[in-house]
Amino acid sequence: MTSNSTDAPEWARRRSFAIISHPDAGKTTLTETLLLSAGAIRLAGQVRARGENRRTQSDWMKIEQERGISVSASVMTFEHRGLLFNLLDTPGHEDFSEDTYRTLTAADSAIMVLDAAKGVEPRTLKLVEVCRLRDIPIVTFINKMDREALDPVDLLEDIQDKLALDATPMQWPSGSGKRFKGVLDIATNDLLRFQKPGEDRDPHEPAERVALDGSAIGEVLSAEEADELREGAEVAKELCPPFNRQSFLEGHLTPVFFGSALRGFGVRELLEGLADIIPGPAPVTASSNGNPVEIEPGGKEVAGFVFKVQANMDPNHRDRVAFVRLCSGRFKRGMKLKTEAGKQLTVSSPILFFAQDREIADEAFAGDVMGVPNHGTLRVGDSLSESGKIRFTGIPNFAPEILRRARLADPLKAKHLKKALESLAEEGVTQLFRPTLGGDFIVGAVGALQIDVMRERVAAEYGLEVDFEAAPYETARWIEGDRDKIEAFADRHKSAMAVDINGDPVFLAKSAWEVSYSEEKFPDVSFHRAKERS
Ligand code: G4P
């Protein structure tokens, strides 16, 4: 990692962000073009190619390969304008939304990619809700302007209405599809010119600028198009609040950029926008010995939390990589860190993830994401610090929507099964519930694909043949309340009670209706869809 030429501390150069979108809006393409724009990769195709390389390394990732989806989230670091960007990649498939949600806990901002022909789609909505839990600032990129798009005013209204976010266009498009001529930079009144097919540029270069009120504009736009663009930009200014950085940082306002990721258009400008406005690491509230403490990114003690654990690519070794988001301090290779439960580990080979490579890090700072190889010591949601006294909260578990009973072909291997299921639940792949009555484990997942991954991994890594058969439950809720109230509830629902991997009580419900009925009948018990890892 290069050292900083200015006096600003290293952590202040970090910009950790995630890209969120509904599948097919163009997240992968934008990721790649952003990396190209920043000069972090040189050839298109490397993001996908890297995924493919990774896939050949692991048996269980066969599923990814077969279905052409990316299951594992990773991190790509690149440098631009003296800033170090950590792009947190999130799985595109909706079955892995839980993984995505957790990844968002490690990001300080997010880019929301919308398909210009579709606007806000269901999955975008869900992801923005998660960003909202932590008020992460959101930058909007309206993609695929080279195709027929919705009216830009309708797109902005869609954002305001569906997401309850103020939208401020930083640019205004001139046409779309075949008539797409470029976007007006509202701050400078320059048209950023879209090149026609066959004139593709290097996305590393900024777009050509033509002053809207200059004489050269006639070469790009007809008089009618220029008028239409002026009017459009006027309407936008009247309808939308001006950009206000504070309001953006608080998560109330999203600046909107337009472009075409596939054609590399508008991406360089988006990157400059990111460098101008997205925030670096902010203080995080955590607890120390049960008391709330503010963890400052410039603080002395090294502290962070695990937001993802990935099994090692090599199935012959049981080691895993824990993705740790650092929140304070200057980490040095070889440092000893402790979890809040007192487990200690020496971090001798921390990994930083550059766009083309992974390297062993000698140092890392608040805002960085570091891969920590370990043999199962670290779990999703664990806090790591020098003192072992800091505890971060807020890594969510979501109520599973699919519940399956794990049945072994060979009942003598029950102990092995317990170990395998526990270990995968610790990684955060699936959730594990042990019913109060009966011996079978219930496995919960947010999407069906997670169950398939689980079956493959249990077979490949533990040599166990397991059937995940239908369970008579549809959903689960974590329950909370005074002890006597919980006991009264549990007494009435003996066959539907279970505990999760941390021993917390869970109600396995037959239907959503049963949940609302129970909520009415037991007003002193709260039923939670999400649980923060403790
Ligand atoms: P995702 O990660 O959000 O799921 O989307 P991805 O980038 O894979 O893009 C989905 C499809 O949309 C791809 O086409 C991609 O080429 C296309 N696309 C992305 N950005 C743009 C854009 O700015 N303009 C246009 N016209 N298309 C865009 P595909 O046919 O599904 O895949 P491929 O065969 O091109 O890889």
UniProtKB/TrEMBL annotation:
Domain named Tr-type G: residues: 12-284
Location relative to the cell: Cytoplasm
Chief place where the protein resides: cytoplasm
A Pfam family per the record: RF3_C
Molecular function GO terms recorded: GTP binding; GTPase activity; guanosine tetraphosphate binding; translation release factor activity, codon nonspecific; translation release factor activity, codon specific
GO terms for cellular component: cytosol
GO biological process terms on file: regulation of translational termination
Job of this protein: Increases the formation of ribosomal termination complexes and stimulates activities of RF-1 and RF-2. It binds guanine nucleotides and has strong preference for UGA stop codons. It may interact directly with the ribosome. The stimulation of RF-1 and RF-2 is significantly reduced by GTP and GDP, but not by GMP.
Homology family: Belongs to the TRAFAC class translation factor GTPase superfamily. Classic translation factor GTPase family. PrfC subfamily.
Stated name of the protein: Peptide chain release factor 3
Taxonomic source organism: Maricaulis virginensis
Gene coding for it: prfC
